Structure formats: structure tokens, C-alpha cells
Amino acid sequence: MRQIITLIINTNSFQLANTNFWGHSDADMVEVGNPGLSLAESRSHFTLWAAMKSPLLIGTPLDTISPNFAAIVLNKLLLAFNQDEVFGEPATPYKWGTNPD
User: Which reactions appear under catalytic activity for this entry (predicted)?
Assistant: First the structure.
């Protein structure tokens, strides 16, 4: 799971310049609460998905998610940044490369 998330983050870094009001970079499902990620890894995963302005589609049954993992997906600051209509560009502190085409 960790390798897949890392691959998505690296691949997505090339698309972040195209993410704005008119389009978004779909990084795939949020895996917070599913097996394969620790609590700390889940925090990083959700934070990066929110910062990339990816749609936050939760891939975990919410009726069985633990309170610790639920707190991650209910983080008001991350949700506010991800859903901000005024500042639609993603954060890019981890930019891997550029693709000007």
C-alpha cells in the first residue's frame, strides 16, 4: 500500500500545475482506515491528498472506522484547504518535477 501511495504522489506532482478552478488532479481513493497503513502513514496520506486538491473519496466503510482514523478524515483545517473555492491551487511543497507540456 505504501508503495502505491508513493507512486501516486510522485505521478501527481507532474499534474499539479494543471489543478485549478477548472480541473483537479484525481489521486484515487483515500485509504485511511483500511489495512496496510499505520495511523501516522494515514495522516500523511490524507494530508497529501487534501493538499493536492484531489477529490477526497473515502474507500473505507465509515460505519466501522475507528475514532482515531475518523479524526483524520474529519480534520477541519485539511478539509477547508481542500474545498477552498477562492484559492483553488494545490500546495506543492514536495514538487518532484515539472511537465510544462
Answer: Hydrolysis of terminal, non-reducing alpha-D-galactose residues in alpha-D-galactosides, including galactose oligosaccharides, galactomannans and galactolipids
